[in-house]
């Protein structure tokens, strides 16, 4: 590896060093603020290192990584999301039982796994990144031990194990057939007449990806795990963990052109439609806010897959924009829950949110904005995301998928509005218990996310120009 | 200045955001300074842009500042762009200057109100939205302003939200205008679908070249017209305006008199190409304008509430503008918009000064003899009433109204002209009725408070504008954007002109006869049987509320009750039931048991494998 190679993978190196440094330092200083600040600094430095890395791009670093506009964009997005989660966690964790230093170390390591995925072009780094991310999540989900958290973590552990075995087996089958694990070579060799083993391998990889994305019918774990995990970890699961997998899957398909294969297209169409309907219909009568958000994230994966299936430059841009908009909204929504959660219990039942608009007008306003964006109301980022995805779908004549998207957007408004109505309704009798004071770091994060939400919804041009560059890689 | 056009709407918007964020934590003086100051700066920016525009006019007659592209899907694009031409410059200047004066006045008028800073936040937001509406070069961006002013109108009518009636009035305004807005949106979609863009210049050029004499032009014009009717409170969507007077008086002055209600006039002038392609829609515009003029003028004549009387007067004056638009006198309509903005803002503000000095009294029957006790209010109200009546030569209203009547005779025929003449007569009559009832005769309620300096200055400034603005050469300035009326004046138009100049004097004289001194004739008329019925009929705005209640509200409720379980509901109820049923089925899969979840994954894997390997 040359110097330029090292510069190109600087964000990965920075996070690795940050993780090691945090581990060493945590032995001496266990203060909460110190460790949280360390993690935040790590993410900021990694973000800053994108600048030199982009000078070195585009560049293939060993056979495992490709640093290009695509990977740099999504690395930045994942790091930004991790930074927001750190800030939200700080207020949420403060005052909780147990050592808090390790929480941030694991968060850094999980994010490291995610950004490894963002620039992977090889099955080996794909698998490694995914496992680094997954193992961190088992810890994070059960970090504040309790019956719910433990159950969630064990469920995730078992099912993720199943998914990983599918993944490895699928990769092995592809390797058997083609003799390579590099995406670019798979593309070349797959064209020359592929056997059933290749297809079986691809199907198994699809199962694993579907699990990590929480796409139907592999979504059933999502509500239980999101509900049991601490709210900031829910935000991490819904954004960084899911997004990183979406990024590598999209790259895989764009690079290998697998969507052009008929059966493959059919399978993914089925997954997209099933995710949209399952997510939205399951969310309709939910009483728990976190479970509602979990089902909502299942549906959103369905929408994003429409952009994947459209492919090409409009599809890639739409998928990237949608991911960014979805990140902002879902982290913001979980962030609002995190900010409202006391030390003993989280605010989770929708009825507990009644009257919030009168007690905490700004917070309720931010939460409403997030929900409206998830529903796709104009002037929010979510609206433009849906518009671009639908536009990409129309451009490729995917009418079936576009109609499913529109119908599901209509269904989804019902359960987002249910939460919003609760926010603005008068509280029941004595339900107006004094709320915990708002932590500063989390409030700043949520405020920034809200501004970003409106900014992206009104002035998308800067983000789109970045995405155009990212899409030009393929 | 061309590059800083965006500052004009951005300044009030910034003020509004600042006030919303700081809220009650700042003293009232600072709130007023932020609220008024940002609008004042915006007015200066308009002035600078205007000087720039007139000293070096762009060759095409307009200047566009593209701000950003919002959406570009290839086959459709929309963005934010501002357009400066004679029309938008005139509108922006009137909006910012009137708004600034009204905000200065409000600083005193709203003193002691618990929502002081909220008031300025809403008012600034309104000004920003109105400026977006008049400066937008893109119909979607324009629509953002259009919705923004509607929202602010709703918020400000219901400003004193603790009174249930105010909330009702706010909802009525919102829902009535919504009927028009919906049509307007459909119109915008029609234009977007036809031309693939919402850029106003491109749409108008496309319409002019492709829609010659076609039905689509008429459809688009009708839909735009429906939006304009709702916003501008013209028949048949006029009934919300009198109730809108529930808001604070400066709100009535700015939103429900000077600026927002004229948005309909602006949008028709802006899309005049569409209307010119559909002559019968133009006739409809003129007819509706004339009808509103007559309906409202007679209603204004019998109101007891000072503000309601002014509200009906606003409907009538906007009716004059619609009449002008309908007969193709585009310039006259905008000219009248300007003079009306000045004199109607003035009338409302001096009415507000009267109302507040009497401790919140609105009823003219309990006023009287205030001439010597409130001299400032008297003289300024007199200036406004004179301009409203269009007393010849000395008032601004005369010049614009005369231009409209001239155009109506030339382009619309005797019938429309006659309606205009009758309207002008009654206008003068009720204008001076208000003057005599409030300021002459026996003394009514006691004066509790006198007008201070902050309220006095805007009154004087607006009085000067109401009397002198007629000398601004606005019609010729607008020629670059709005075509001059083509119709040749008919024979005898000189006599008609003299008559139309004399009519306001006749009206004022009649008011003198009827309302100055003993009001024997009026009382006898109102006391007689048929007279009382007529009085009630006119007083309720020709019974439109009564009619709509029976024509729309009750049948709708009846149909809704009767049709609760009919065939039309079945698909909707079916969709709901289907969703519930599916939810019930799917919820069963969420058993919470890991083995079931793993089984689900295995099933999915089998399906995927099967599909991949065997298809």
Number of helices of chain A: 21
Please tally the helical runs of chain B, counting DSSP H or I stretches of 4 or more residues.
26
The SSE string of chain B, one letter per element, is: HHEEHHHHHHHHHHHHHHHHHHHHHHHH
- Beta-strand fraction estimate of chain A: under 5%
Largest sheet of chain B: 2 strands, antiparallel
Amount of beta strand of chain B? under 5%
For the termini of chain A, the CA-CA separation is 24 Å
Largest sheet, spatial ordering of strands of chain B: 1-2
Shape of chain B: globular
Residue-averaged pLDDT of chain B? 89
What is the helix content of chain B?
A: over 70%
Q: Mean pLDDT of chain A, nearest integer?
A: 91
Our Rg estimate of chain B from Cα atoms comes to: 27 Å
Biggest sheet features of chain A: 2 strands, antiparallel
Number of strands of chain A: 2
Oligomer: heterodimer
Decide which structural class fits the backbone of chain A.
mainly alpha
Topology:
The complex is a heterodimer of chains A (474) and B (615).
Chain A: H1 3-8, H2 10-26, H3 32-48, H4 50-56, E1 59-61, E2 65-67, H5 69-93, H6 101-119, H7 123-141, H8 147-178, H9 183-190, H10 196-213, H11 221-228, H12 231-256, H13 262-283, H14 289-310, H15 312-340, H16 356-359, H17 361-375, H18 381-395, H19 399-424, H20 440-458, H21 461-471
Chain B: H1 7-22, H2 28-55, E1 62-72, E2 77-85, H3 86-109, H4 116-135, H5 139-157, H6 164-195, H7 200-210, H8 215-231, H9 240-243, H10 249-258, H11 263-270, H12 272-277, H13 279-301, H14 306-326, H15 330-357, H16 375-389, H17 396-412, H18 414-439, H19 453-468, H20 474-477, H21 493-515, H22 520-527, H23 529-539, H24 544-562, H25 569-589, H26 594-614
Antiparallel strand pairs in B: 1-2
Helix pairs in contact in B: 1-2, 1-4, 2-3, 2-4, 3-4, 3-10, 3-15, 3-19, 4-5, 5-6, 5-10, 6-8, 8-11, 8-13, 10-14, 10-15, 13-14, 13-18, 14-15, 14-17, 14-18, 15-16, 15-17, 15-19, 16-18, 16-19, 17-18, 17-21, 18-21, 22-23
